[in-house]
Amino acid sequence: MTRVLVVEDEPQIVRALVINLKARKYEVDAAPDGATALRMAAARHPDVVVLDLGLPDMDGVEVIKGLRGWTRVPILVLSARQTSDEKVEALDAGADDYVTKPFGMDELLARLRAAVRRAEPTGPTGDTVIVETPGFTVDLAAKKVNREGRDVRLTPTEWHLLEVLVRNTGRLVSQKQLLQEVWGPSYGTETNYLRVYMAQLRRKLEADPSHPRHFVTEPGMGYRFEP
Ligand code: CA
Questions:
Q1: How many domains does the chain have?
Q2: Residue ranges making up the domain that contains 56
Q3: CA of 56 relative to ligand 1 center, distance in Å
Q4: Which of 48, 192, 196, 219 has the maximum number of C-beta atoms within 10 A of its C-beta?
Q5: How many H-runs (helices) and E-runs (strands) does the chain carry?
Q6: Contact of 83 with 108, CB cutoff 8 Å
Q7: CA of 84 to the centre of ligand 1 (A)
Q8: pLDDT at 123
Q9: pLDDT category of residue 12 using cuts at 50, 70 and 90
């Protein structure tokens, strides 16, 4: 059974989420503020977190940072705020996706399912399971990246993006293909997601993130991984 942690201070939204999630056989915990959310996440180990950014005790982005200190659990953000800065900040902090309020329950549930699916371990991989570059090594089977002798911590979304690029080493992967493979078939135009996540991958893996040599942008087209 999939366990969901709902972090939201508006009782009507909590009630709607709990009813809809339980009807679909999810197990649901609800936290009305950030401190409770962090405590509950540690105690209950949810499979996915639905997180409102506007909480009474702290900014939702702080909750994301707190969670990312120890867990890769998928985080789906609820944002009432219209500015894309807020969303980018949340994605940057390690959220996997966001839904803008007011949201349709069907859309939220679809994104929730996709976030959980992305986090699930996939089956055995193809022939080449280890890809080496001068600066880091990617082990596709173990789902690990090693840089200078240390494991690099990647979120599920970062890993998925890296995996698609590495499996297509040397080939241009279009923006649309990346969005659909990593975020799901209904995506295709959200190129801001790609910019945010490519920046994160470069920051974690490139020697000089502002002059990337492994994660190459093909302007207006897509991205290419060069070992
Ligand atoms: Ca709120």
A1: 2
A2: 3-119
A3: 7
A4: 48
A5: 8, 12
A6: no
A7: 17
A8: 42
A9: very high
